[in-house]
């Protein structure tokens, strides 16, 4: 493997000059820089990132923490962040906390120990003391701890749109309330609740402990056992909605004639369900992209127009909700 | 933040002794080691992984390369690998190549530059010259370049099972042939082809350029336009099968009465499709786990019983294929 000395020899400069080029500090003539870069390329010389990050206490790595990689919403976020970071020459260290506090703490430690340049955290525990002890910039994604840079979408409006989509044609509505410790889940819940309270409908609330697929399957069975008269369900995400939809069909109910179901997120699979799922679209890919942009701006100490970015949501009517009369 | 000197002071030993404990080299009395560990814990001292990896040329990071994080099959693989690695004190650097050669090369370079302890590659380009130039151990996952350590599942049998599931009750079968550069796709294709050639059915083959969701949607529309008489479809993965299923229903066909459809992979969402998708189950989570185990064995220089591990597959009959007479 080529060394920095080989590069210096090939370029006809000193090791110190190569080092200045590598670290982008001190004056180097443009023509010299080009010659050094050409020598590095020719010799297939990879600067030692570890040594460089030790020296400069920085790296081109970004740590991304996701709560559940098996929920397709989060890979979409990751893809958005990844594309933006790659474009700027950064790479992701990725951690999946599996909604467990311990794993989250371990990944944060891994990120710190490997001197990432910054962290994007779609954490279930945004108020952890550990986040304030991190030297690197942190941007929260899909989570909004007060005072911290964050990218999220407008959950309160999303919840209202979800409830409005079914409230006029369902009379016994079940509102699924997502995990209590997640402000995003609570935002959409309160938005929906506001609409239901003002409408002339019976409704009941079931609280769910997680957004996970496994819990959603159990929940779906329980829901129909406890509230057989339910004719409208507002799910707290698409995974839940898919599980509920499946269970409704299994019980011989017609969707949307007997029961309307609306999800939340608009993961790619929702369109492929049968009937295709009506849902509230969060712009997941763009949210990931915005989080990466915000983080890079902070890393580069650029002036920031906004540090708590909230993106718009949208009602996507497919076939699990009925058309409003006014739409007809 | 505590330093190595603080730890030495608190434990009543020299800095050199703490360093020996940290690097696990040279003789340290067991009682002394315990005292040092306790002091580190008490002072919340994190050894500098970057410095350590520079010195020892190793780290506790593993690089994982996936071709498409938005295909739910791959997060399952990742979860299996992750759980096993976490249990052994390793963490993942994750890269999503998006089926692009350039991104794959860039991630490999990132992995090398950050001195990962090893790489798990679910690569689309297993024959890349770059893989032979890597100093760290590499285990291929879901891919099987000859002579290299790998974990895959038995695709040939999987393809045969898929064809056998529909061949007796469909007369005009469409066999979707996955990407030509992926041996796993070709294995399942050839398995299915073998069965179809021996059976008394018409069949046609459509080759697909990728496993991605976007391509699958276009493919589904094309398939029914070109071969309207198709009454049986063997998809090369579940994403394709879901797209095909959706398009069939949209065209008013009854599944499985008018047309049988079988997928491949058994991603979690397949069970939630309507009708629930019949498919060939690959044990994705366990494959990830086995790949991590194999990689760790190689890193630890343990004797290996097997370096090309092939795991069994299974036919899961749900509602998009019909029961065989012999089953009834």
Topology, element by element:
2 copies of one chain form a homodimer.
Chain A (H helix, E strand, L loop, with lengths): L3 H8 L3 H9 L6 H14 L5 H8 L4 E6 L6 H15 L3 E6 L4 H13 L4 E4 L7 H4 L5 E4 L8 E4 L1 H12 L5 E6 L5 H16 L3 E6 L5 H14 L5 E3 L3 H13 L9 E3 L16 E3 L2 H16 L8 E4 L2 E3 L12
Helix pairs in contact in A: 1-2, 1-3, 5-12, 8-9, 10-11
Model description:
Two copies of one chain form a homodimer. Chain A is α/β, with parallel strands linked by helices and 328 residues long. The first copy, chain A, folds into three domains: 4-47, 434 Repressor (Amino-terminal Domain), CATH 1.10.260.40; 61-153 and 284-312, Rossmann fold (3-Layer(aba) Sandwich); 155-282 and 315-327, 3-Layer(aba) Sandwich (Rossmann fold), CATH 3.40.50. The first copy, chain A, contains twelve helices and twelve strands. In chain A, the strands form three sheets. Chain A has a six-stranded parallel β-sheet with strand order 2-1-3-4-5-11, sandwiched between helices. In chain A, helix 5 (73-87) packs across helix 12 (284-299) and helix 8 runs parallel beside helix 9. At the A-B interface, helix 4, helix 5, strand 2, helix 6 and helix 11 of A face helix 4, helix 5, strand 2, helix 6 and helix 11 of B.
């Amino acid at each position: 493997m080529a060394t920095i000395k080989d590069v210096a020899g090939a370029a006809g400069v000193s090791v110190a000059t190569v080092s200045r080029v590598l670290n982008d500090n001190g004056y180097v003539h443009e023509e010299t820089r080009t010659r050094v870069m050409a020598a590095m390329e020719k010799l297939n010389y990879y600067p030692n990132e570890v040594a460089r990050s030790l020296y400069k206490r920085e790296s081109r790595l970004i740590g991304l923490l996701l709560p559940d990689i098996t929920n397709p919403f989060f890979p979409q976020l990751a893809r958005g962040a990844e594309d933006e970071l790659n474009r700027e020459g950064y790479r992701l260290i990725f951690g999946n906390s599996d909604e467990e506090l311990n794993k989250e703490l371990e990944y944060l430690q891994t990120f710190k120990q490997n001197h990432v340049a910054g962290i994007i955290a779609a954490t279930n525990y945004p108020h952890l003391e550990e986040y304030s002890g991190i030297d690197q910039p942190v941007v929260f994604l899909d989570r909004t701890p007060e005072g911290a840079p964050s990218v999220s979408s407008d959950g309160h409006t999303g919840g209202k749109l979800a409830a409005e989509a079914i409230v006029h044609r369902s009379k016994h509505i079940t509102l699924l309330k997502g995990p209590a410790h997640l402000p995003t889940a609570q935002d959409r819940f309160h938005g929906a609740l506001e609409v239901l309270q003002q409408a002339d409908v019976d409704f009941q609330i079931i609280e769910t402990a997680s957004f996970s697929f496994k819990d959603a399957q159990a929940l779906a069975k329980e829901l129909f056992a406890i509230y057989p008269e339910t004719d409208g369900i507002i799910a707290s995400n698409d995974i839940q909605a898919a599980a509920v939809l499946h269970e409704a069909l299994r019980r011989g109910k017609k969707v949307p004639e007997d029961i309307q179901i609306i999800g939340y997120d608009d993961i790619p699979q929702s369109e492929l369900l049968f009937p295709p799922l009506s849902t509230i679209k969060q712009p997941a890919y763009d949210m990931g992209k915005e989080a990466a942009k915000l983080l890079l701006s902070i890393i580069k100490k650029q002036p920031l127009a906004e540090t708590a970015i909230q993106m718009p949501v949208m009602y996507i009517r497919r076939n699990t909700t009925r058309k409003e009369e006014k739409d007809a």
